[in-house]
Amino acid sequence: MKKPFKVKRKKPSYGVYDTYSILILLILTILLTGIFLMIDNLIVKFGSLIFFIAIFFFLFPPIFGSTNFAKMKLREKIINVAQPKENDVILDVGTGRGLHAIGFAKALEKCKVIGIDVWSQTSLSGNRMEKALENAKIEGVSEKVEFKNADARELPFLDEYFDVVVCSFVLHNIGKNWRKALKDMIRVLKTNGKLVIAEIGYGLFSKKNMIDALEKANASAIHFHSWGFGGNIISAVKTPAYRQRDDKK
Predict the structure, then answer these.
(1) How far apart are CA 134 and CA 242, in angstroms?
(2) CATH superfamily assigned to domain 68-247
(3) Closest CA to 27 of 62, 54, 52
């Protein structure tokens, strides 16, 4: 008796972060392996080993973050921190292949989710709107999610339009104008709406700098939630003072 034919269900694909970092690590691994095999000097070998360990810990976060396990855990954490409600209007800034936009759409029966991006090819492999649309279809949420080509520094939405705004590892890719993008995210957020940001936790995006940037953009109730691997998940609420100051202009 023949076994029944099983149709394989296509799985969503959310890409690989920081492909250049992974390529650099691969090249360095090959180079340092060659040094170990060809050079007998123990000092050189020891130095190469220390250098490799340092580079590995620097590049490990984007590599680990590219695994499906890490992406699903991050998505779950961001949704839990955001605490969305039915009928919420949600914005995913720098949506890429739609990981978080689709996650929110799956978590709620009734909602409207918009994912925006400029779809840079350097920050995520295969980063195209078509991939986000395909993933939404596979996950069965096409009717609740839409994607738009838009710059995070100039969001094409009215003031106080969204109940929740999320932004996952995008600010460091924006560069020197990241504070402008942060301010515009709060502009489109409703008073008392929730902003959730996942970002690296050092340099320009240290805890001190993030608190300063959020407070200057008139956000309050700022909390840092543990994530690890050099990153933070930060939540904040848009305060009524933001609207009051804007009305006086």
Answers:
(1) 38
(2) Vaccinia Virus protein VP39 (3.40.50.150)
(3) 52
Q: pLDDT tens digits, the chain, 249 residues: what are they?
A: 555 545 456 788 777 665 556 666 667 667 767 766 677 777 766 776 676 666 666 666 656 655 777 888 999 999 999 999 999 999 999 999 999 999 999 999 999 999 999 988 776 767 789 999 999 999 999 999 999 999 999 999 999 999 999 999 999 889 889 999 999 999 999 999 999 999 988 889 999 999 999 999 999 999 999 876 668 999 999 988 544 455 445
- The Cα 159–Cα 162 span in angstroms is 9
Identify the CA nearest to 114 among candidates 178, 68, 158: 158
Answer yes or no: are the C-beta atoms of 184 and 171 closer than 8 Å.
no
Task: Tally the C-alpha atoms within 13 A of residue 46's C-alpha that lie toward its C-beta.
Answer: 3
DSSP string, 178-206: HHHHHHHHHHTEEEEEEEEEEEE-SGGGS
Q: Are 231 and 203 in contact (CB under 8 A)?
A: no
Measured between alpha carbons, how far is 159 from 191 in angstroms, rounded to an integer?
10
Hey, how many other C-beta atoms are within 10 angstroms of the C-beta on 44? Answer: 12
The DSSP bridge pattern shows strands 231-238 and 189-200 to be: antiparallel
